[in-house]
Design brief:
By secondary structure, this protein is mainly alpha-helical. The chain is built from 28 helices and six strands. It has a six-stranded mixed beta sheet. 62% of the residues lie in helices and 4% in strands. It is flat, with a radius of gyration of 33 Å.
């Protein structure tokens, strides 16, 4: 998405103030480190360390000032040259522009590069996300740290140059650089967080990591906007766009939208002129950005259930009444087979409406937004036109609640994006596609008929669509239906065991239980307790006996009772483990652990329990386990062997992806990726070095398993949740959409505004 320079200016302040804090902490820590090093130094190094410590004490204030000066200078230069290729290409290099470089210059550069590598490793997650955000803002598919104006190189060079100017003795300067480098690396974590937060507060994130290559489409569109703007300016077009003239064929969206954007730019410049009392009058590009990307902190806690109040004003009420009349007339016109007017055609019908400046801007921008959506080439033609039907209710919702334009969780935006997403996986070449189009029509008819002020109308439409898609895919393929049922049953079994283990852990917590018995109860016996068809009452009764048998026996009566109990106890444990299909090796290891516990008890080697209970008390304590327990909702961990065995038992063959690797995605990225992983969504999976189309068919109820069909593969592919996140992070799995429908439309508007702003 194209971004006003002001966003970078906003990030500049925390970068400068953060560097002041970082440099101050670096000097302080370096001083402490030098004091410690001087005390334990060998005699040969003692003099150099003493001189370095003395130099830091004498010149610390000057060094800090010079570091800040250099950093501010380098940062300003970097912000002007980012993503501007000022380097000579290989074709431009000749003997005339070659320069000899002295050895000490090369040595200094090597020293700086070494420090840069250490700084990069010190805060790689935040720095990596910041590099990605800046690449995305410039529409570049390749992440290049050298184009980040806040990159570690500026920190390292500022320190190096300030030292070279402040400390004249070369050996002393080199020693100080080594010590200060270590200190800055130690103090760096957290520096990039404040800069990253500025971008996040403007609605920018690194969520597109899962599909950076698709940004090349945004680059091509940007060039198309620039070319169309040049043609518009060259022909002096200020009035009716060519596609509205009689007998003229429809033109691409740039030719249709640019005149409207130009009109909006001219009206905006008249409404908000630069003035001495107004330090900054935003241009068209920044105005569009501000409307759709308000800081997150400014968003009011809003919607989902309560209807939004209609803002006052007679003009606003008249406009809403007109929009409502147009909205309710559309289903009837569609039933008669009448041609649906385009978003800008509807905007033209509102040209004479008496509305305020904020309302007029909202009407203009939402109309342009939907004009972009109905020309989105990533969507099938039928879905584009269907999404155009959302224009009027969406516009009315924006008039009621302007915050929805920068609220990704607003029900209207979620419905819009969900329709676009499902159209990437269920495509026109599939037999079930006509049924999807019919359902989308039904959902939109319901929105057009029922929406007035209650935003939950959109949420109801999305739920209806989600339910339809969840039944459409298995209904069209019997084999797929069996796979979906199977992953649901696998998860249900694991969830029962996980919930039982959590409940048992809570019951064991107040007891002083031998850890070996506690682990056996929560890990293995919990599976026996939830085994379908098992004797749950008998298995639950075993809990008290297992815990009691592991307690110290202080009287002969207790020891005698335990000896009589053990044969039956061991037999029932063995039978329980066999009932859940526990392998002989694992079962024997578990029994051996219990035998060792009992040997310790009988040999008087078991420590006394601080909270010992007799058998009857323990039975009363564990009776609570048999009560009704609220089922959890969180995903559960399902191992490869467990999943493979469960599918084989049902005669289902599938490609399993269960390895989470060593990747650790940012929490915000995980939330964004999982939000895109909905049934019906289109993906691409890397198979044998190339990407193959795939469709997400189902997600298990608790989000533990994800079932995909892959083009050219008879067997489905099943991912665990952690494996899915790892695949999205390392790009072996990527979404077809590089961004949701709404964001793509905003990107397009930003590119158009930028194209006009450059003329």
């Amino acid at each position: 998405m194209q971004i006003p320079k002001r966003v970078f200016q906003l990030a500049k302040q925390p970068a400068l103030s953060g560097f002041h804090v970082l440099a101050t902490q670096t000097l302080a820590e370096a001083g402490v480190n030098l004091d410690k090093a001087a005390k334990g130094a060998a005699r040969g190094d003692d003099r150099l360390l003493v001189h370095a410590r003395q130099g830091l004490r004498e010149h610390g204030t000057e060094l800090l000032e010079r570091m800040q000066h250099h950093f501010a200078t380098y940062l300003e230069r970097a912000m002007h040259t980012m993503y501007m290729d000022t380097r000579a290409s290989l074709e431009e290099i000749s003997a005339d522009n070659l320069t000899l470089i002295e050895d000490d210059v090369v040595t200094r550069q090597i020293e700086i590069d070494r420090m840069v590598m250490r700084l990069r490793d010190a805060d790689q997650p935040s720095l990596g996300r910041l590099n990605l955000m800046i690449a995305q803002l410039h529409g570049d598919p390749e992440v290049r740290e050298r184009e980040n104006p806040f990159r570690p190189y500026l920190l390292a060079r500022s320190l190096h140059e300030a030292l070279r100017e402040t400390i004249r003795d070369e050996n002393q300067s080199k020693a100080l650089f080594d010590v200060l480098s270590v200190a800055m690396v130690h103090c760096l974590p957290g520096y990039y967080v404040a800069i990253e937060e500025v971008f996040k507060s403007r609605g920018i994130s690194s969520k597109l990591t899962a599909r950076p290559s698709a940004l090349t489409r945004a680059q091509r569109e940007r060039l198309a906007w620039q070319k169309a703007a040049e043609q518009l300016i060259g022909h002096g077009m200020t009035g009716t766009p060519p596609e509205r003239q009689p007998g003229k064929p429809a033109q691409p969206k740039q030719a249709r939208m640019l005149p409207e954007l130009r009109r909006l730019m001219q009206q905006h410049s008249k409404a908000l002129p630069d003035a001495p009392g107004q330090p900054h009058a935003p241009d068209l590009q920044e105005m569009v950005w501000n409307v759709f990307n308000q800081p997150k902190a400014a968003r009011p806690p809003r919607h989902d259930e309560a209807p939004a109040p209609v803002s006052g004003g007679q003009a606003h009420s008249a406009l809403d009444a007109q929009l409502k009349h147009m909205q309710q007339a559309r289903p009837a016109a569609s039933a008669r087979g009448a041609r649906e007017p385009g978003p800008l055609d509807l905007r033209a019908q509102l040209a004479d409406a008496a509305i305020s400046e904020p309302d007029r801007v909202t009407v203009d921008l939402v109309s342009l937004l939907f004009e972009s959506i109905v020309h989105d080439e990533q969507l099938p033609e039928g879905v584009r036109q269907q999404l155009g039907r959302l224009h009027l209710p969406f516009l009315r919702a924006a008039m009621i609640d302007p915050s929805m334009l920068h609220d990704t969780k607003h029900p209207a935006r979620r419905l819009l994006d969900r329709i676009g997403t499902v159209a990437t996986g269920i495509t026109p070449d599939m037999a079930c596609y006509p049924a999807l189009e019919g359902e989308i029509d039904t959902v939109l008819d319901g929105v057009l008929e029922r929406f007035d002020t209650d935003m939950t109308t959109f949420a109801d439409g999305q739920r209806k669509l989600d339910q339809f898609v969840s039944t459409l895919l298995p209904r069209s393929d019997v084999g797929l239906a069996r796979c979906i049922d199977a992953i649901g049953m696998v998860e249900a079994g694991s969830a029962r065991q996980s919930d039982a283990a959590a409940a048992l852990g809570a019951l064991l917590a107040p007891l002083d239980v031998d850890p070996r018995v506690g682990n056996f109860v929560t890990d293995m016996w919990s599976r026996v307790l939830v085994q379908p068809g098992g004797d749950a009452a008998a298995s639950q009764a075993m809990l008290a006996e297992l815990v009691w048998s592991a307690q110290e026996k202080s009287t002969p009566e207790e020891r005698s009772r335990m000896v009589r109990m053990l044969p039956s106890l061991v037999k029932r444990v063995r039978e329980g483990l066999a009932a859940i299909g526990m392998g002989e090796t694992v079962s024997k290891a578990a029994l051996d652990q219990l035998v060792m516990v009992h040997m310790d008890v009988l040999g008087n080697r078991q420590p006394a329990s601080a909270k010992a209970m007799d058998l009857e008390q323990l039975r009363a304590h564990f009776a609570a386990f048999g009560g009704e327990r609220e089922a959890g909702r969180d995903p559960v961990s399902i191992g490869h062997a467990q999943l493979e065995a469960a599918l084989e038992q049902r005669g289902i063959r599938a490609d399993l992806y269960t390895d989470a690797g060593n990747s650790a995605a940012h929490a915000a990225d995980e939330q964004e990726w999982l939000g895109m992983a909905l049934p019906g969504a289109g993906f691409e999976l890397a198979v044998d070095g190339r990407y193959v189309p795939a469709r997400l068919n189902a997600v298990s109820p608790r989000g533990s398993l994800y079932l995909f069909s892959v083009k050219g593969h008879a067997a489905p592919s099943t991912f665990t949740r952690d494996a899915l996140l790892a695949a999205l992070q390392n790009e072996t799995l990527r979404t077809v959409e590089h961004a949701p429908v709404f964001e793509r439309a905003v990107e397009s508007l930003m590119a158009g505004a930028e194209a006009l702003s450059g003329h």
